Amino acid sequence: MSDPTASVMLPVSEQGYSILVQFKIAILNISSADRKVFCQRISKQLRLGDFPFIFAGVLLAKRERLTEAEDMLSMATKNSFAQHLKRYLGSRNPLSVSPYASESALPLNAWTRTPISCLEMRKTVAAFTEFALAGKRLVGGETLSILDIGTGNGILLSLLVNRLTQVHKFPIVRLFLLDSSAEMLRVASHNCRQIVSVPLHISTIHRPIELLGKAHISSLQKENLTFTMSAGCLHHLPDKRKQHAFSLIRKFSQKLLMEELEANHDLPDTDSPELVWSVQCFYSSLINSVKHSRLTPLEKRKCIDDFLLAEAVGILEHPRNTRGNFHTVCNEWSRIAHAGGFQVSGIRTTILNKHGLRSLAFDLTSDLS
User: Fold this and answer.
1) CA dihedral in degrees (85, 90, 96, 102; nearest 10)?
2) Would you tell me how many other CB atoms lie within 10 Å of the CB of residue 349?
3) H or E segment at 230?
4) CA 8, 13, 14 angle in degrees (round to 5)?
5) What angle separates helix 14-26 from helix 273-291, to the nearest 10 degrees?
C-alpha cells in the first residue's frame, strides 16, 4: 500500500526538487507559449500531472500577472482548486484576501454537511469515545465536564456527549465552549441544547486558546475537567504557538482529545513547491466534497469562496507566520504535543477519500503542573 501521507508531501526526489526550484525561477521570465511547453516537459519528466501549471499559475498570480496566471490554471482542467482559483482571478482579484475564513456561521454550517466532513465527524466521535472511555478517568455517577476548544457549531461535541451519556449516567454535564467567534459560540450553545439528550450547564469563553488569561486558567483548574477536546482548531496556529497552546492546556487538563486533517501548510516556505503541492491537493479534496454534496447552490458558493478558497489563498499569499492555517503532518503533531508537555497515548487515522486525505485523532495525556 502507498504511503498515506503521499497526498500532502511532494512526491519527488532531491534531484526532482532541484528541477522544480529551477523551474520556479525560469517560469516567470519566458513567453506564454514557451511556458506551456516547459510545464508539459516538467510534468512528464517528474510525473506530476497538472501540478507545474498550477505552480506557475500561483507564482504569476502573486505577482498580479492575472491573465497569464489564468492561462496556466486553465490547463489544469481536472483540478478543482485550480479551476476555482482561475474563476477567482477572472473577477480581477489578486491573491490578497484575508488569511482567515469568514466568521459567519453559514460557510462552516454548510461544510459540516458535506460527505468528507460527515465521515470525519463520525470517525472523530468514535475515536474520542474510545479515548474518553479508556482507563478509569470517565466514571458514571460523577460530573461530566468537558472544555471544547474551537467549538465551531458545537455539533461534534453534542454527538460525543450523547454517545458518552449512553454508556454512563452523569448527574451533571458541564460544557465549556471556547471560540474566537461570538456568533459561533451562540450557534454552538443553541445546537448543544437542541441535540444533547440530557440537561446541560453551558459556559462560553470568547477568545482564542493562545490568549487564554490567568483568570480563565485559574477558573478551569477549579473545574476538575474530565477532559478537553479540540477538533479542527489548533491548525490555526504555527508550530511555536501550537506548542504554547499545548502548554496552556496542560495547566488545567490532564487529557486532551485532538483531531485535525493532515496537510503540510506549516513548515514549508512561501512560494515553495511543497507548499503549493499540499495546498492544491488538500483544497481540491475539500472543494470536490462540496461540489458533490446536497448543499444549495448558495451554500456551495459561500462554503467554497468564503471558507475553503479564502483559507487556501491566505496560505499561499501571506508570509509564513500570518497564513492563518497551519495544517501539519502526523509526526509533527506528535512532536509539538510532546514539546508542550503531553504524551501520545493513542492515534487513530482515517483515510477520507480516494486521494489519501487523512483525519488524525490523538489521545494526549499529561500530569497537571
Assistant:
1) -70
2) 15
3) strand 227-231
4) 110
5) 90
DSSP-derived pairing of the beta strands 255-261 and 227-231: parallel
3-state DSSP call for residue 260?
strand
Instruction: Give the separation between CA 202 and CA 191, rounded to whole angstroms.
Output: 11
- Strands 227-231 and 201-206, by their bridges, are unpaired
Terminal CA-CA length for the chain:
42
Residue 149: strand, helix, or coil: strand
- pLDDT tens profile 290-345: 999 999 999 999 999 989 999 999 999 998 889 999 999 999 999 999 999 999 99
HSE, side-chain direction, 13 A CA sphere, residue 334? 10
Which amino acid would we find at residue 116? I
Q: Strand, helix or coil at 345? A: strand
| Rounded CA separation 265/321 (Å) | 11
Contact in structure between 148 and 157 (CB atoms under 8 Å): yes
Gyration radius (Cα) of the chain, Å: 22
Q: Which DSSP helix (H) or strand (E) runs through 35? A: helix 32-46
CA–chain centroid gap for 259, Å, is 9
Please say whether the dihedral angle defined by the alpha carbons of residues 159, 163, 168 and 169, taken in this order, is positive or negative. Answer: positive
The one-letter amino acid at 256: L
Burial (Cβ within 10 Å: 0-12, 13-18, ≥19) of residue 24: middle
pTM of the model: 0.92
Tell me the residue type at 135.
G
